[in-house]
Amino acid sequence: MLYSYYFDVEKKHLLNCHFNVLQFVEKPQGVVDVVFSIEISEWNNGVLRKRETKADTFSFPPTAEGQSKHDIDFSRVRYGSEKKWIFTVTNNKNNAQKAEIGLISQTANKNPLGVDIIHSSNLFNAELKGNNLSILESTYVPPVLTQTVVNNQFAQAGYPTGFQSNSAVYNSRYQNMEAKDFKQNFLESMPARSSFRIQVDIAPKTVSTESGPVFVLSVPGIGEISLHKTSLDYLPLGGEVSDIKRVIFDQEIKASDFWTTAPTSKARMVITGNGQGELTIGYNSKTIETAYDSSKEVSMFEFKSENNESYIDNILATYQK
Hints:
The protein has 321 residues and is mainly β. It has no helices and 23 strands. The protein has strands spanning 2-6, 13-26, 32-44, 47-60, 72-79, 84-91, 98-104, 114-118, 146-152, 163-164, 169-171, 176-179, 181-190, 195-204, 215-219, 223-227, 231-236, 245-248, 268-273, 278-283, 286-291, 298-304, 310-320. Strands 9, 11, 12, 14, 19, 20, 21 and 23 form an 8-stranded antiparallel beta sheet that branches. A hairpin with a 4-residue loop joins strand 5 (72-79) and strand 6 (84-91).
């Protein structure tokens, strides 16, 4: 089921809300689970600008003959003051079961000219009860939305969106990059005072420290994270040597800690901020908990190593607002 809102007569600028049934699963006592995915996306001139997806499952009890077995409702909301589009799917047999996603968009923050409603699946029947955007109650509070600003998995050769490097070479065997440097620009800046999560798998192929740390990961607006043989260091934005936060490893690191035939769990760098000044950095099974300036936007991060090439994979960054 596709609701395709268009903002121009040529239908080049679109806001799509898509529901897709993946599977029906018969359970004991006549219960049926409907496994589905939902997606909300913005397109302009055939180019995908933003997209959020989610998979979920609704359970339906057995029904009497002649009654509908599966009753699912779709609502679409545009909340202009926060630039949000919200797509909600509700199980009408159990209103507690809901799936909700949304987009925060500057360019789609206006009323559409119209909507095309397309039903092309033979797995379920659809009945149109109304084709208008939902009317909001005065007490309506828009949900906090998770927004993806980069999701690069390196499934195919070539530099994905926002990825720049002077050294990166695609490894077709492992479907990742081998690099001494790269920049990852975000699709949009993470707003100030929003909670966020940045993750990237970094597996050094060697751990030489002859002319500096194993690597440095810089996040403008946050600070610098550097890996050493015996520690992980964090230098806050604008900080001095005396401001460094350090966690000491249990033993000196080696390349095999981070890579076997794929990145190990120790290779995943995870940086999270709560939007209120609390920062957590995790790598090599160690964690730094410290403070940061949440008043800054975050729009990219940069990786550099003087001596060591690393496997790079699974770059994902999200924020909530």
